[in-house]
Amino acid sequence: MKAKKKSASSSMDDVEALAKLLKKHELSEIELERSGVRIRLRRDLGGAGHMVEGMQAMTLPASAAPPAPTATEVTDGNISYITSPFVGTFYRASGPDTAPFVDVGTRVKKGQILCIVEAMKLMNEIESEVDGVIVQILAQNGHAVEYGEPLYKVKQE
Fold it and tell me: How many other C-beta atoms are found inside a 10 Å radius of the C-beta of residue 59?
């Protein structure tokens, strides 16, 4: 008899269970490895112990190296790509009836909110890690994005 392969919904159940443990015990990080799949959840805690950003989840093959910690990938002298730190849905604005956080030509500062990526029903604000000007918006509003997928092309100043 063949062993059943773990389904995607079963993996999401694991992620949701880990998220509940993370919150219940006020942990900053939790990791589970099972059947060759590693799931790590991490959240950033502010100085007072409250959650500043949403949780991030990543599922990696157990043998894969952990991803780089930064969401910005510099490729050409003064051009940077702001990438998605996790899988989710990309939103350019905080709501359907509000203006986008940034447009092409917008001058941005390090720490300025560029967009929201919704992951596991949590709205995560993605901030610029560089000062510069938005040259190109690479993701489509309301569409899914992958971990490491470029969202914005920024010319650094």
Answer: 17
